[in-house]
Amino acid sequence: MAQIRVENLRKSFDQFTAVQGSNFTIPDGAFFALLGPSGCGKTTTLRMIAGLELPTEGKILLDDEDVTFRRAAARDIAFVFQLFALYPHFNVAENIAFPLKCQGMSRREIGERVQETARMLRIEHLLSSKTSKLSGGDRQRVALGRAMVRRPKAFLMDEPLGALDAEFRHLMCGELRDLHDRIKATTVYVTHDQLEAMSMADQIAIMNKGRVEQIGAPQEVYDRPASMFVADFIGSPSMNFLRFEGGLRSGDRAIRLEDANVAVPEVREDRASGSLVLGVRPEHVRFSDGAQVRGKVFGAEYLGTTQIVTVDTAHGRVAARLPSAATVRIGEAVGLEFQSERLTLFDAG
Ligand code: ADP
Ligand code: MG
């Protein structure tokens, strides 16, 4: 297994720059997600790591060895495009064995490797089955087996669960993470789905328009988003953004909203008036008489144990996650209070 490091990685197609100087290190054995909206440069980044695309600038290092100009086949990395692609006329064992046969490995060694892989994936009982007879989950396990059997230094996966329905995707997320915990292979997992990234990854790099905006553990990027883009992309429903007037001085511990002071995490630098935004997650808003912001209930969406109540205020529409037992009337005048230690300040520029 290996550490993967990219330094100032850039890729231009003619005039257009798809990846604008990425830097990150993926520790050996980590599950690393590249997350971002369609077109932000995830696949291009992954293809450069795989060796399928040559960077315009920058370096790729595997365990500190510069592999930037090494061809894909010599990098010893498995690229998993779509977990479902199997050879239908082969049985499970033959499917898994195929990459080793291509390498010219001995029959005995291939047999041992296939057994070991099947054991890891818990599909030993399926080895002689035809792949056309398998369930969706088992097909996916076999496809993974075919990637694992070569014992690559790392796995690269490009939206591998993209084609699956929500329920099955959720199940496979759990399995992929479970498998990762057993084999501890460095994995780079590309997705546009924040829930997939949040539920599986040790570290997430959030990309926007070719740039990595933040890298951190799921909890970290959720609690301390580095930009409004990250705050908006992670979490559902999204973070509320409330614009407010007035500047801030380094050391300030509160901002002024309507008639109330709202305590905020300590301000670290002076910030000019006019472009400041308070970020509040819906679960950190509650209804209160000693309110900081007033508004009128616009709507409520029932989600089982909680409900998302939207309130129109002078600062825009604010979503609050409340217990579903709370009674809420549409059009009702309410006061909102924010959980101060969980707020984030942004400069909207
Ligand atoms: P993602 O995987 O995040 O959806 P991609 O890495 O596939 O994004 O693409 C990033 C941007 O680069 C997109 O705007 C895409 O159109 C462009 N792009 C990708 N590959 C090529 C290519 N071979 N030629 C020209 N433009 C490309
Ligand atoms: Mg892509």
UniProtKB/TrEMBL annotation:
Record bears the keyword Transcription: no
All copies of the ABC transporter domain together span 4-234
Give the source's domain of life in one word: Bacteria
Among InterPro entries, the record links this protein to: AAA+_ATPase, ABC_transporter-like_ATP-bd, ABC_transporter-like_CS, ABC_transpr_MalK/UgpC-like, Mo/tungstate-bd_C_term_dom, NA-bd_OB-fold, P-loop_NTPase, Transp-assoc_OB_typ2
Q: Which UniProt keywords apply?
A: ATP-binding, Cell membrane, Membrane, Nucleotide-binding, Translocase, Transport
GO MF, one example: ATP binding
Q: What does this protein do?
A: Involved in beta-(1-->2)glucan export. Transmembrane domains (TMD) form a pore in the inner membrane and the ATP-binding domain (NBD) is responsible for energy generation.
List, alphabetically, the PANTHER family matched.
MALTODEXTRIN IMPORT ATP-BINDING PROTEIN MSMX, TREHALOSE IMPORT ATP-BINDING PROTEIN SUGC
Q: Which family does it belong to?
A: Belongs to the ABC transporter superfamily.
Can you say what this protein is called? ABC transporter ATP-binding protein
Say which species the protein is native to. Bradyrhizobium jicamae
Q: According to the entry, what is the taxonomic lineage of the organism?
A: Bacteria, Pseudomonadati, Pseudomonadota, Alphaproteobacteria, Hyphomicrobiales
